[in-house]
Specification:
Length: 151
């Protein structure tokens, strides 16, 4: 007499399909969580315009375009270079990575605010006092660099 296969044997193909579906879904969610969603509630309430996505409504660009100014460049999760400028000289933060970063002086002398990947900050102004000014990314604490003011 032929007996039907045990329940576990019949359930294996269905279990394998369910397991594979759950595994794919978990991987997709995990990858989505690694994306660049650094938006906070305070960011959502900030005032920006299409012509000035950083919210600076002063209209003062120092008389030169950002592309003509010296820059600190971010690539990936690192600043590519330190920068030396004169006292009070303007510079920009050029974020060439694929994620949002900031360029923030450790003691608050300058701050780019959040700059999306592929964008530049509004012009920043170097301190008037010569010296070395350490900076970091507020989002990724391992990112550090130095602005040197010579004059």
């Amino acid at each position: 007499m032929d007996r039907p296969p045990p329940l576990l044997t019949r359930a294996r193909p269905l279990f394998a399909k369910i397991f594979a579906t759950l595994l794919v879904a978990a991987l997709a969610l995990g990858l989505a969580a690694c994306g660049d969603d650094d938006t906070t509630a305070s960011d959502q309430g900030s005032s920006t315009t299409a012509s000035d996505p950083y919210g600076d409504t002063s209209g003062d660009d120092g008389g030169s375009s950002s592309s003509d100014l010296p820059s600190v460049v971010a690539e990936g999760l690192a600043y590519k270079n330190d920068l030396t400028v004169g006292p009070g000289e303007q510079f920009v933060f050029d974020n060439q990575s694929g994620t949002t970063h900031t360029l923030t002086a450790d003691k608050g002398e300058f701050d780019s605010d959040r700059v999306s990947g592929g964008s530049q900050s509004d012009p920043l102004t170097a301190p008037d006092e010569p010296g070395n000014y350490s900076f970091h990314c507020e989002i990724h604490s391992s990112m550090t660099g130095t602005l040197t003011v010579e004059g």
